[in-house]
Write a structure and sequence with these properties.
- An 8-stranded antiparallel sheet has the order 25-24-23-22-21-20-27-26.
- The protein has 10 helices and 27 strands.
- The chain is α+β, with helices and mostly antiparallel strands.
- It folds into 3 domains: 194 residues, 2-enoyl-CoA Hydratase, Chain A, domain 1, CATH 3.90.226; 119 residues, no CATH class; 114 residues, PH-domain like (Roll).
- Helix 1 runs parallel beside helix 3.
- It is 23% helix and 31% strand.
Length: 475
């Protein structure tokens, strides 16, 4: 998103077209498609007010920069109406003005196969609706599971050959000012500061895509046209609570609720048989000292329709219980798309983390027996993680030696379970210490390992009487 000018997308990209439009599923009454340019916000205001011209009594107010803040459409139409967006981006300043126009007036939507990138993503985040209650203005933004929503930092644009100090400082100011304009609106638009922060870390030529359950939940973006569970299981309830809690934790992480970007699973899961029909569950273990409950209430019909709400605490308004939110945070949205699945249902237990490329960590493996170092060689630890329907997390760490041999450590945690085995023998991990630490330090330079790493661990094997330790490499 260029700061104050148009980005340089492919020449074939056309200027934005803003027209009345009907999409019943997304409740869109207007559509913007194409490159965002100066004047598009006023064009949108004109289109909206023309659509509502039969109600001349509806008040029209204006904000300081001359944009319509509250249109006749917002007063005389259903407040749940939206604007469908399909744009590669363009003029960032105009994207912000579009956001001002959209807020309080329309929700936002991205249809199947459409994209909303760069400056468009700023306008998208302003999607909202008035509840006409104590809840006030709430976020109303939804993307299809196959759509692309992408954010990145403003471009520091300097014309070719213009590299004097004043030119560069001027471009820098424009870029920084655009960030300030976004931050100024972030609270009102429910545009999380952490999303702004992540956005600023992405180069202008790249994108941070909203492509996983975690990112959609953490930044309060709804997802449409996904498969759903065949039945509601303990894992589905836990996922729903944890995904909504990520939004809360992301907002107030400094207050000790946790990091919304982390992988920790909160809550103490209830044990029940998977079911359809109406349900109501309260799961403890959220908030500081685990004193807050998550409430999941809803109904899963035989045709797969899922409705209900998720609420953290007793007084929170909460959010809708959507199909996608009952899946593990690591699941990719495109993998949940109805159009890419043979059935609208996924089997019970499939709400867990997807099969993915195992995590790999290089380092050193050493074996100690008594006071004797039996082996110390470079090795690779390959980790595969799964989560069962009863919320038991299983991590299989295969430590691969240069010979091809493996030392396998399995760790199971969750639902009151904590079990560890090494090559099938029960064990309890411990930090690297004593003789193992001495041997580790002696070989640290040779093998390039960090003996004090928090990921270093030792596992005693009662059958062999040996101690196996894995120590990761530096950096």
């Amino acid at each position: 998103m260029a700061a104050g000018i148009v980005l340089a997308p492919a020449p074939a990209v056309r200027a934005a077209e803003i027209v009345p439009y009907e999409n019943a599923q997304f409740a869109c009454v207007v559509k913007l498609s194409g490159l965002i340019e100066a004047g598009d916000a006023e064009r949108l205001a004109t289109v909206i007010n023309a659509m509502a011209s039969d109600n001349p009594a509806s008040p029209v107010s204006r904000v300081s920069d001359g944009l319509y803040k509250r249109s006749k459409l917002a007063v005389s139409f259903d407040p749940k109406k939206r604007i469908c967006l399909d744009s590669p981006g363009g003029n960032l300043a105009e994207g912000i003005r579009l956001a001002d126009m959209i807020y309080e007036v329309l929700g936002t939507a991205i249809e199947p196969g459409a994209q909303c990138l760069s400056a468009c993503s700023i306008a998208f985040m302003a999607g909202s609706e008035s509840t006409e209650s104590d809840a006030g203005i709430i976020a109303s933004r939804v993307m299809d599971a196959t759509a692309k929503l992408g954010f990145h930092a403003p471009d520091l644009t300097v014309q070719e050959g213009s590299y004097n100090r004043d030119t560069v400082q001027g471009a820098f100011y424009v870029a920084v000012n655009s960030v300030g304009e976004i931050l100024k609106r972030s609270g009102e638009f429910k545009f999380p500061y952490t999303l702004v922060g992540e956005m600023l870390r992405v180069r202008p030529q790249e994108f941070l895509y909203i492509d996983t359950v975690n990112r959609a939940a953490r930044w309060h973006i709804d997802v449409a046209n996904t498969v759903g569970p065949a039945e509601i299981s303990p894992l589905a309830v836990s996922n729903a609570c944890n995904n909504w809690y990520r939004f809360h934790a992301d907002q107030v992480a400094t207050n000790g609720l946790g990091d919304g970007s982390g992988t920790e699973r909160w809550g103490w899961v209830q044990d029940f048989k998977p079911r359809k029909g109406e349900f109501s569950f309260s799961e403890e273990g959220f908030g500081q000292e685990g004193a807050t409950k998550c409430h999941v209430i809803g109904e899963l019909k035989n045709d797969g329709d899922l409705s209900g709400s998720i609420r953290i605490g007793e007084n929170e308004i909460g959010t809708s219980l959507s199909k996608w939110i009952v899946y593990d945070q690591a699941v990719r949205l495109e993998d949940l798309a109805l159009s890419r699945n043979p059935s609208p249902f996924r089997p019970v237990g499939d709400e867990g983390a997807p099969a993915s490329t195992p995590g790999t960590l290089t380092g050193g493996c050493l074996v100690v027996k008594g006071d004797v170092l039996e082996d110390f060689e470079p090795c690779t630890r390959v980790t595969e993680t799964t989560t069962s329907q009863s919320i038991v997390k299983t991590e299989v760490h295969a430590h691969i030696w240069p010979s091809g041999g493996k030392t396998v450590v399995v760790e199971k945690t969750g639902s009151g379970i904590f079990e560890q085995t090494i090559n099938g023998v029960e064990t309890n991990s411990d930090a690297v210490s004593g003789k193992a630490m001495e041997f580790c330090r002696d070989g640290a330079s040779k093998f390039g390992v960090d003996c004090l790493s928090s990921k270093a661990a030792c596992y005693p094997n009662a059958t062999t009487g040996k101690l196996f330790c894995f120590v990761p490499g530096r950096g």
